[in-house]
Amino acid sequence: MIRKLHCMLRLQSGITQTLYRHRAPTILTRNYATDEANRNADDKNGNNAKRTSKSLPAVRNPFGAAQEKTKNSYLAMVEIFEERDVHRRNHVEFIYAALKHMPDFGVEHDLEVYKALINVMPKGKFIPTNVFQSEFMHYPKQQQCIIDLLEQMEDFGVMPDYEMEAMLLNVFGKKGHPLRKYWRMMYWMPKFKNLSPWPLPDQVPDDTLEVAKLAVERMCTVDLRSKVDVFETKELEDSLDDTWIVSGMSVEQSKLLKEHSPQKALYIEGPFHIWIRNRRINYFTLRADADAEFLAQLDERQLDDDDVSQIGVPFFGRAPPRRHNQLGKVRSVHQQDDGTIFAICATGTSTKDSLLSWIRLLELHGLASFDQIPVLFRFKSVVPAKAEEIAGPAVPSSDIDASLHSHKEHT
Amino acid sequence: MRYSLLSRAVKLLNENHSRRGQILLTRSSSNKARSELNAQHAGQQQEEVTKAAEETGKLPAREPLAKNFFVGLTDRELLGYPEVIPRDEMANLQNALLPLNNYFAEEQQQEQETQLKQLGLYGLNVPTDYEGRGYKWSASLMASEPEAQHTSLALGLQTHRVVVDLLCELGSLEQQERYLPQLASGQLVASEAILEYTPPEDDFFATQAQYDADRRCWLLTGEKAFVLTAPAGQRQLFLVLAQTQQPNVPGTLGRSSTIFLVDSQQQGVRLGEAHETFGCQAASMRRIHFDQVQLTEEQLLGLPHEGNRYAEQLVRSSRLRGSLTGIVLAKRLLQQLASFSVDTQQCGVQLKDLELTRVQLSQATCSIYAMESMLYMTAGLLDEFAGQDVTLESSITKYYTLQQLYTIASQSLTLLGPQSLHRGQFWEQGLRDAAQLCTQGESLSTLSLFIALTGLQHAGQQMNEGVRKSRNPLYNPGHIFGKFLSTNTLEQPKTRMLLAENLHPTLESAAQCIEHSVARLHMAVDLMFTKHGNAVVERQHEMQRLANIVSTIYAMWSSVARASRSYCIGLPLADHEMLTASAICTQGRDDVLRLATEIYSGNYVNNDNNLLRLASQVTKSKGYFAVHPLTFNF
């Protein structure tokens, strides 16, 4: 009740006020937004409009006009609609409108809200009483409406529960099409729910740093010995940006970097994109061109598979040989054909300065040493505005080496 | 029998200086013709060996026994159990062992050190020229049986003897003169220092030695762990394996290891912390630190940078001597178990009458019988033939012994119940010691891989041609058709080894079991080569199966040989020995068939594929990955 009152007070102070029903008692007087306001809201959420592009009947839509877009106000509006009159006229249109505006209120992942919408439907009225009714979609408009609601749940990955089954049963009976849809959903959705090899926490954190950590951790699963560090550029005296750096590197990569010839340059490449749910994180790689000589050596060493006369036996409990390392090394997962990747990072600003800080911090924390090795920037896509600001306007945003001579003189 | 007959023949031949005769003896009758190159090489080798044999009074070496199992060959002659200690020497030996037996039966603990020295335990295997007893392999193993009643004590003596063995084999004359008399008297106690606490990721050892060309000496730096040390005040000699870099060979190719003899009283040698061990607590194991220890060239054993080549001799000795400790412990466990089951009554039934107890006791007996036969058979081969290759036999002996020892020690817990693990109880001590022995030196899984790889190495050299043909069927249709047409199956292999001819007729079915098992091993090896080529070294689970197969076969082989000898000369309870050998063979045949079938059916049928897939998830999740069984999903 408190929730409702609160919401009503808010609505009272709306800009444009139109009376919706003349016979509504004063306490239940509501102000619904004009269509103009609705249009504005539609423009803002172009995507949503496209998805639920069914032509809506000309019913005034309270959701577009609501000033406080929270779950509480949303539920209050649903409750008001329920209590408005016994017939609940236009409830299908109301549900469609409610569905459309869910993302505005940030409730599109909330099961409780969907249940509240289903609860708007009258109980018992739509239950078919004979075979023909049940097979020929009794009350098709209403059934289709709830099917669309379920469809939207599915699209947003909201899994129904058993209470919803009971509600649907009360509204449409056990032969109802929404219930069939529900059952199909309950078959597939649990199976897909945990299928991701890189599951995200149930509530993906909102903080960009946390999301960046998640992203780097996920990319680092390629090598189980990887370690993800979070650095603060504050640690360095001469860094311009004050930001964080999430850096992922493994022991193996440190070793590869140690063995890297100082004659060959290292490149910081990026930004590349990784999507964590609906958030995009830019990340950069520290890489060098593939060590063609070493890879060729490995190829050479792929001796004749058929020759079994040269099997080596290890000594003193040493690890038993693998085919390719009988003489030396195996190829690490970081040594790809198109380059060797030494580390990845995501920074708070994605600027050149923060990347330079990254290199220095790696050195500071003893993860790598870059003496003598030239480190070049190579920005592949649109450089963030700030990067241009720092590095000067001459930075080309193309595939060319960004600053061929910006190597270790900086540090 | 064979000993006297053949040695007389050798003498005759030697007198005549008949080259043909030598070759006649050295070529084993059951060998297939090899490729020309191999034959030439082998011929040269055998000439050398024959010369060595003449010098030491031993017979020329035969083809390796267990290695040849991998190629489906057997040496029937070796079914005669070796009698390497002549009758008169055996009587002397037994007389000499009397005081040892008495001493260890009485359990005197005070002034143990001096007692051990007086009993001459430190010099059992030192040659008589250097004031030792001069026992050979079999005799010195027999002589160390009494002391093995005290596992901790035996560990210390064992490592001492291993160093002595190596010194006798590799040491120069000066080194032998310098060290052996002191080692024999116990003034100097030797110990191996090979293992390290944290071995480096891609080197042999973290302990490094560098040659200083100006001062003509080596500088040793690093630390070794798990070194058995004598009580304080005792001078010690450490046999240290250190990593060295070959001069003029850069990088990983020049990486090698070298064996050094380091005196504990030298500058820079420091005893570190003691390890608190799980079992064998009376033996003190410590770390040893070497800080720029200067070593002269006389302290280098063998040639520099050849440590890996000598490693085989080193581990052979420690494997054999280690097995003996295990066998004696297993015997003691069985003895206690037997008397416990006789003495205990539960609900009016004696424990010994329960079928479960009886099966358990017999299984333990069978394994002990097999391990004992294997040990003395291997030692006998070493004593009888000059330069005989027993790499595989010695590692199998250790592998089988320790595996079975741990089984016996842990299975007795089920029989005894909770009282078995009371602190200070015999059983608790036995289990602890068994576990300790299992971790001593090399782990059992690496040992099993060593066994399989050694066998595959040998087999690969001999089967290379055939494998190449099988792997390229379209180029060699004849070879493949021949394979298709052969009626040899895993269940019913065709063999013509005629092993039964060299055994007592009662053991004919046992001999049949061995023949079939050897044939199955050969077929499994052939299949693995054909399937994987030289990637076979990555198939570790299959290799472990191979190791188990060949261990079982060698256990069957030596038990049958021993039982046949015992029965023919009528030793006490020889009929039960026959029964034991038959039991081992029957059990062994089934085990081998099961393992070979697993190899034959491939990784999709034998579950390997599932296990490997699971493992990658376990490492990804860094442990157990399944959620709680009562978790809800919605």
UniProtKB/TrEMBL annotation, chain A:
**Cell location:** Cytoplasm; Mitochondrion; Nucleus
Lineage, top-rank taxon, reads Eukaryota
The record's section on Pfam families has: ECSIT_C, ECSIT_N
Keyword entries, A-Z: Cytoplasm, Immunity, Innate immunity, Mitochondrion, Nucleus, Transit peptide
**Which residue stretches belong to region Disordered?**
31-59
Matching InterPro entries? ECIST_C, ECSIT, ECSIT_N
Q: Which residues form the signal peptide?
A: none
Q: What is this protein called?
A: Evolutionarily conserved signaling intermediate in Toll pathway, mitochondrial
Keyword check for Cytoplasm, yes or no. yes
Source organism per entry reads: Drosophila albomicans
- Please provide one cellular component term from the Gene Ontology annotations of this protein: nucleus
Whether Nucleus counts among this entry's keywords is: yes
Q: Would you identify the family this protein belongs to, as annotated?
A: Belongs to the ECSIT family.
Kindly state a single biological-process term from the GO annotations of this entry.
Answer: innate immune response
Q: Where is the ECSIT C-terminal domain?
A: 250-380
Q: Where is the composition biased (Basic and acidic residues)?
A: 36-45
TrEMBL record, chain B:
Domain Acyl-CoA dehydrogenase/oxidase N-terminal intervals? 99-187
Query: Which GO cellular component does the record give, naming just one?
Result: mitochondrion
According to its UniProt entry, the protein's GO biological process terms are: fatty acid metabolic process
Start and end residues of each ACAD9/ACADV-like C-terminal domain: 505-624
Q: Is Mitochondrion a UniProt keyword of this protein? A: yes
Query: Which positions fall inside the Acyl-CoA oxidase/dehydrogenase middle domain?
Result: 206-293
This protein's major location comes to mitochondrion
Compositionally biased tracts (Polar residues): 28-47
Among the Pfam families in the record, one is Acyl-CoA_dh_N
Q: Which residues form the Acyl-CoA dehydrogenase/oxidase C-terminal domain?
A: 306-434
Keyword Metal-binding among record annotations: no
Please give one Gene Ontology molecular function term for this protein. acyl-CoA dehydrogenase activity
Q: Report the cofactors.
A: FAD
Q: Which UniProt keywords apply?
A: FAD, Flavoprotein, Mitochondrion, Oxidoreductase, Transit peptide
Where is the segment annotated Disordered? 28-52
**Record's subcellular location:** Mitochondrion
User: Superkingdom, according to UniProt?
Assistant: Eukaryota
Protein family according to the UniProt entry: Belongs to the acyl-CoA dehydrogenase family.
**What is the name attached to this protein's record?**
Complex I assembly factor ACAD9, mitochondrial
Q: Which organism is it from?
A: Drosophila albomicans
